[in-house]
Fold:
Amino acid sequence: MMSKRFYITLFLSFTFLFCNISLSQNFNKSQIKILFEKFNKQSQTPFSYKILEDFLKDIKIEDLKKGKTFEKEVLFENFDCECKDVMKISYDKTSKTFILKIQEATFVKDLDWCPEHSYVGSFKIKDNKIINTGFYLIAG
Structure:
């Protein structure tokens, strides 16, 4: 009888632990790669896969669903310059959609300012798969 209780307790502990891990799941490499590829099919992205991966890899999906937003200043150019870009991700509870906003500041050698472009990407996650993607230039 005592060993049955032990095994049941052990089983319930692992089940609880597994459920908590799945709730705090980060974006995985496969999801990020598919997202990047789908965005690029719709409109050429101004950023590389590596930049998207570095931005998303440490973000917990559940935190976004709870209303947190994440924003990071990045550099799309492959050299150091003053034209900083911004990536921001949030989650819309009504439509159950992730929203990725991109503010690109392009370096132009002969200008003393950085022309800007704005993009919006959207996607859903169903059964751990990226679906319903959209990526659009909205200003620039």
In short: The helical segments are 2-23, 29-42, 49-56, 61-65. The chain has a mean pLDDT of 86. Strands lie at 70-74, 85-92, 97-105, 116-126, 129-139. The two ends are 71 Å apart (CA to CA).
